[in-house]
Specification:
The protein is of the alpha/beta class. It has 13 helices and 16 strands. Strands 8-7-6-9-10-11-12 form a seven-stranded parallel β-sheet, sandwiched between helices. A five-stranded parallel β-sheet has the order 2-1-3-4-5. A four-stranded antiparallel β-sheet has the order 14-15-13-16, covered by helices on one side.
């Protein structure tokens, strides 16, 4: 049977819960759309999240809150989830897909912030600035040049040549670096970046290796002891992607025995849920290592842009049914038809659903002004504009189909 219909036809009046200090830019856009916005500054555990989601239609999170299958099953009013960050691995995407809940993220908004930090860390590692700064803070004067180099003329290897990786390459070239990249998908290189066929080839030629890949079974511990052994002696590793990508024990050994010349790590296999004392890492105390607390995208500009990007996607879904940018849902957008009522339906992708929907519309005397359908292997998503004011009856009838997952009239 279909999930419960919301009490409102569009964003106006819908309840939104924003966690983890989502930027004020998101609050403003959602309030302007007429949503009722509630905010919690921290992440919530599973039980607390289930309790807070009672009657909530939209959930906004960052990277700490885990939206599990159990959470989704306990939130029948939930219509969409917005991840105010790049990653979406904190959400049970398949479960959300199966109950008709599209999940949106912000793949573009913090690109520049992360790229600038990576370039800054390349220079810092090349000059051992982290160690020198700590020494001076501790009252020790140690003016040395051994092991310190310019980055001009050095080779930067980019693993994962997406939005961030390509921007890193542009900035690195502007500093006179040679840039090579590896990606499992074919990407058009920017500037003079050279695409390499294998990760092994990239590791062998790079003076600096920077990682920009998602957390997947394929990328888990992709930089392990064997991969590190393939790197140039004295090379340096940077990871601002996901904490599961690098074997930190193997990296620590390679740094302490001089196999690698340095590292900059911004993400970890396990991270605290809130700011405070007591964080520990095997890399602490290793030479020429920069450790930062997952701040690659933590700039004022990036957070404001992320807030606007994700909130805009959520409002467009609530108001007109657009799923463009959803990471777990058929992407579909249809221009509004003047003077019509719009109905949205997610259903199991089996033969005959569209026939059944159109027969119901015909029986109710609803003239279909426009209609678009997008599907994936198991789910279909339909946007339909109709003339007659029978939208509520049509939504109820379509929702009663055995194939229907959720149905909504937006206007």
């Amino acid at each position: 049977m279909s999930r419960s219909n919301p009490p409102s036809r569009s964003a106006a009046g819908l309840k939104v819960l924003l966690l983890e200090n989502v930027h004020a830019s998101a609050h403003e856009l959602l309030l302007d759309a007429g949503c009722k916005v509630d905010a919690v500054p921290s992440a919530l555990g599973e039980d607390a999240l289930i309790e807070r989601l009672r009657g909530v239609h939209v959930l906004g999170i960052r990277s700490k809150t885990q939206v599990t299958a159990r959470v989704l099953a306990a939130a029948p009013a939930l219509m969409s989830v917005g991840c105010f960050c790049i990653g979406t691995n904190q959400v049970a995407l398949r479960d959300a897909h199966d109950i008709g809940v599209p999940v949106f993220n912000a793949p573009f908004s913090n690109t520049r912030s992360v790229a600038e930090m990576i370039i800054a860390e390349v220079v810092m590692l090349a000059r051992q600035l982290g160690d020198r700064a700590r020494e001076v803070h501790a009252g020790r004067w140690r003016k040395v040049s051994a092991g310190c180099v310019e980055v001009r003329g050095k080779t930067l290897g980019i693993v994962g040549y997406g939005h961030i990786g390509s921007q890193v390459g542009v900035l690195a070239e502007a500093m006179g670096m040679r840039v090579v990249s590896f990606d499992v998908a074919t990407k058009l290189p920017m500037g003079n970046t050279q695409t390499l066929a294998t990760l092994e080839e990239l590791l062998a030629v790079s003076d600096f290796v920077t990682l920009h890949v998602p957390a997947t079974p394929q990328t888990e511990l992709m930089i392990n002891g064997e991969a590190i052994a393939r790197m140039k002696k004295g090379a340096m590793l940077l990871n601002a992607s996901r904490g599961t990508v690098v074997d930190l024990d193997a990296l620590s050994r390679a740094l302490r025995d001089g196999r690698l010349g340095g590292a900059a790590i911004d993400v970890y296999p396990e991270e605290p849920e809130e700011n405070g004392e007591g964080f520990a890492s095997v890399l602490q105390g290793a030479p020429n290592v920069i450790l930062t607390p997952h701040i690659g995208g933590s700039t004022l500009e990036a957070q404001a842009n992320i807030g606007r990007e994700v909130a805009t996607s959520l409002v467009r879904y609530l108001d007109v049914g657009s799923t463009v940018g959803a990471v777990n849902f058929p992407n579909l957008e249809m221009a509004p038809t003047a003077g019509s009522h719009r109905l949205l339906n997610a259903h199991r992708n089996v033969p005959g659903v569209l026939r059944d929907v159109n027969r119901i519309a015909s029986d109710l005397g609803a003239n279909i002004r426009a209609q678009m359908l997008a599907t994936d292997a198991t789910l279909g998503y339909l946007i339909m504009d109709i003339d007659q004011d029978v939208s509520a009856a049509l939504a109820d009838a379509i929702g009663g189909l055995g194939t229907s997952i959720c149905t909504r009239v937006v206007y």
